[in-house]
Amino acid sequence: MAARTGEWNPGRPDYLLVAIVAILTAFGLVAVYSASFVRSLVDFGDPYSYVLRQGVWAIGGAVGMFVMARIDYRRLRPLALPLMALTILLLIAVIAVGVEGGGARRWIGVGELTLQPAEFAKLTVTIYLAAWLASRGGSLRSFEHGLVPFVLIIGTVSALILLQPNLGTTLIILAITVTMFWVAGATFLQMLSLFGSGLVAITVLALGAGYRAERITAFLHAEKDPDGIGFQTLQALIAIGNGGLTGLGLGASRAKFFYLPESHTDGIFAIVGEELGLLAGLAMLALYILLMIRGYQVARRARDEFGQLVATGITTWVAVQAFLNIGGILRVIPLTGVPLPFVSYGSNALAALLLAMGVLVSISRYGNDRGGYLDQHPVDRRPRGAIIRRGQEP
Questions:
Q1: Quick one: which of 8, 105, 266, 385 has the most CB atoms within 10 Å?
Q2: Burial level of 201, CB count in 10 A (0-12/13-18/19+)?
Q3: Is the Cβ–Cβ distance between 47 and 37 less than 8 Å?
Q4: What digits encode the pLDDT tens for the residues 247-298?
Q5: Transmembrane residues, as ranges (predicted)?
Q6: How far apart are CA 373 and CA 82, in angstroms?
Q7: Among 306, 305, 250, which Cα is nearest to 274's?
């Protein structure tokens, strides 16, 4: 059956990308069970409670990923504004009537039916900003039509997430959007202005709230208070050190017996290192790096700017979030409290990531040079080999 005019002719999906996501998600279920069964037994009287919840969301997320991969990603562009409006409303609802937990208010809903809008905001903001940037043309390079609206858009979302408070997610969204802004063709002066003002803002925020200042202190001087603010930082390093090269064995972690706080969420990389050793940790790093490479390859092959920017944003999201989590556990940077992509326990985080991967796979199918465009209108054909920023086309 002939395709309708104006449709993309889909090529093969990036099977390696799909395989990486499947491996990380499956490994995550094993890691969540191993890291959580003690806490699950104490909290619910059932050692399988956390992993079963994660499994249900993994299945739901996998279905969502499959559906999104089958849909032409260009269909998301008309939905960009409604998705952004819904995101803003949900973030406001979190502040107004959200559910509190762990000293923060980040969820809306009742009982098991809770939603964490900030996790899905990473995807909706990426889609909206890609549509907005692709429509700017040369005006993006001006301060009044480019930088100022960009700051207002991202500043609004960031402020709502910071009020929860959730600095880690805010940092990820800033990394995503600033990278997209640069790829879309922002000038060096605009980027310098963003980095300068952002550095000042992050410094003020990091030192302004008590728990954020404590994380900085724990990063710099954990040994001065090993039973207090430095406890989590040091226990994570001890767990990894105990694992050595090959680990103590799957399920044999000692840190998960309430030595390492949040062992099944933020600290799961330390449990993996303790049980499976340095080699397993390096294998996980290799998978994240390979995912990043494949994601940026999808971006550079995209035939339209919207697809290029969405793929860039999604890939940056996974790369930065993995760095923030692993870097915090290894004491390369202060702890931020963000989950390890696909591996940490967290239903909303996993579902949002799998949906995003579905969009990325869709771009690999519909938007690259292995497929084709079936219309007679001009096509934005970028040369292969690198992500081409607006203003740099030959």
A1: 266
A2: middle
A3: yes
A4: 999 999 999 998 998 899 999 999 999 999 999 999 999 999 999 999 999 9
A5: 15-38, 50-67, 79-99, 146-163, 170-189, 195-213, 234-255, 267-289, 309-330, 342-363
A6: 27
A7: 250
